Amino acid sequence: MWIALLIVVALALGLAIALYFQVKASHRQADEQQQLLTDYQQRVDDQQKLLDDYRALEKNFDSVGEGYEQALLAFDKMEEEQQQARQTNEALEKRCADLQEQCTRYEAFAKNAREVIGQALVGMREIAKTSGDTKLTALIGKISDVDDLDGQQPIKRTDNILVSQVADEAIAASGVDKVNYLKFDKQVAPDAAATMLSTNLVKAVRALTHLLDNALKFTSDGGVTLKVTVDMDKMLAIYTVEDTGSGIDESEREHVFEPYVKLNQFFDGRGTGLTVARSIARRLDGDVELDATFAGSGCRFILTLPI
Questions:
Q1: Best-predicted range by mean pLDDT (42-56, 104-118, 284-298)
Q2: In this structure, what are the phi and psi dihedrals at residue 139, rounded to the nearest 5 degrees?
Q3: Number of domains the chain is built from
Q4: Which residue blocks in 175-250 are alpha helix, DSSP H?
Q5: What does the angle CA 142 – CA 291 – CA 166 come to, to the nearest 5 degrees?
Q6: What is the CATH number of the domain that holds 242?
Q7: Residue 154 included in any domain
Q8: Is-contact 199 166, C-beta < 8 A?
Q9: 36: domain range?
Q10: For the whole model, what pTM was predicted?
Q11: Is the dihedral of CA 39, 40, 43, 49 positive or negative?
């Protein structure tokens, strides 16, 4: 049964991705058409100025002569060009309206596709949870990332759990505690262990898993540390991931959160993990930041979620 669901989700995913790029292309075409429209409008304005100049010149002529006749011919030609520009302007406005309508339809279709994928993912998660199939769980996460990559809608916080549960499930999902060439250390503050968190468990775990995966990917020696604390003054749960990896240059610190950015082409991945983590966190009213003050050899990423 889950294989059939997987096929349906794969088809829907392909359609959603195609629609996503079609929408972006349509937006780009609309921008280009708008630029053409602006250029044409500038040309019309320039011609109107010349036309006004000719009309002023016409009033100053005392007699009809060769120069006046040439001015009239130029005037007639300008009026003809102005009419052509006006027609082009109207055609461009209609084209822009058509493109906007197409974008609206594509966006509505993409929204429906996301809803279908979301419903299928719920069923697949139940199957994966029941069967304990780790490969299916990983695949579900990757499919979910496609929707979270550029998600805009707030995520409903329907789960009331312990702050430490997000850490425990993210550790299990990433497998960072099972890697034998690194030392993994989890540090949970006593007050964090007893604090409840209102969030979306699946999404919060996914965000933290991406941070752990990132640390694991870029750390070949040393270790990874996960610190779980709470700030009761700001009502925040704080998950800090530190590693002893290769680090990130200062000039690249904000670029790492852009989609499909890979600072090291020798590692696997699509360059979307940190983008998805920040997208999820912000739609949960939290955030993901790279700590620029970290003095260690690697990196420190901080995930905050409202309690």
A1: 284-298
A2: -65, -40
A3: 2
A4: 190-193, 201-217
A5: 45
A6: 3.30.565.10
A7: no
A8: yes
A9: 2-138
A10: 0.59
A11: negative
